[in-house]
Write a structure and sequence with these properties.
This protein is α/β, with parallel strands linked by helices. The protein has seven helices and six strands; from the N terminus they run βααβααβαβαβαβ. Strands 1-6-5-2 form a four-stranded parallel sheet, sandwiched between helices. Strands 3-4 form a two-stranded antiparallel sheet. Helix 7 links the parallel strand 5 and strand 6. Helix 1 crosses helix 2 and helix 2 crosses helix 4. The chain is globular, with a radius of gyration of 15 Å.
């Protein structure tokens, strides 16, 4: 399904790198082996691109940063959320606050690895719900932060929930994006 047939729920998707070596190896090490050195390196480049974009475009920065949440079981297994580490780097340099519970991943799903675009979309259906923070926040413009965007299924599902809560503008930021 193309973006023209079914436009995404977010407004723009910006990535710093293509998802290829050596960045793909760094991201995998971050996720699978608690590569906090990689988190600092990738977070630095993400926050630099984030700040440069909003300053060069002379547009307002988002009201909040929303790291893509992990399901509780995945968070327990991994011990950290890589998207939170990346969002923390952006927040620290830009002053844009993070909302950690604006969206919640309430359903566990199979890993997205190895799935095609349609399978990824089906896998993400009904996974996110709006959390208490987004109900109380007056967020007109948010930035979703993720490590890798492949088919946009995850960030689109999350964006749809945010749109239902009245968020007017949604930017998606990732360290890397696949060339699909």
């Amino acid at each position: 399904m193309s973006c023209q047939q079914s436009p995404p729920a977010f407004d723009r998707c910006l990535s710093v790198f293509a998802y290829e070596a050596p960045v793909s190896s760094m991201i995998n090490n971050l996720k699978e082996h608690a590569g906090f050195k990689e988190a600092r390196y990738l977070g630095y480049h993400l926050q630099a691109s984030f700040r440069q974009f909003y300053f060069e475009q002379a547009t307002t920065m988002p009201d909040f940063l929303l790291p893509v949440p992990l399901h509780a079981s995945r968070l327990r297994k991994r011990g950290f959320n890589q998207s939170v580490l990346l969002a923390r780097a952006i927040s620290g340099s830009s002053g844009v606050p993070m909302l950690l519970h604006a969206c919640q991943r309430h359903a566990s799903h199979h890993s997205q690895r190895g799935l095609n675009a349609n399978e990824r979309r089906a896998n993400m259906r009904y996974v996110f719900t709006a959390g208490n923070q987004i109900h109380r926040a007056t967020a007109q413009h948010v930035a979703i932060i993720d490590d890798v965007v492949t088919t946009t299924a995850t960030v689109d599902a999350m964006s749809a929930v945010l749109r239902d809560q009245g968020v007017a503008r949604i930017d998606v930021w990732s360290v890397a994006r696949t060339n699909r």
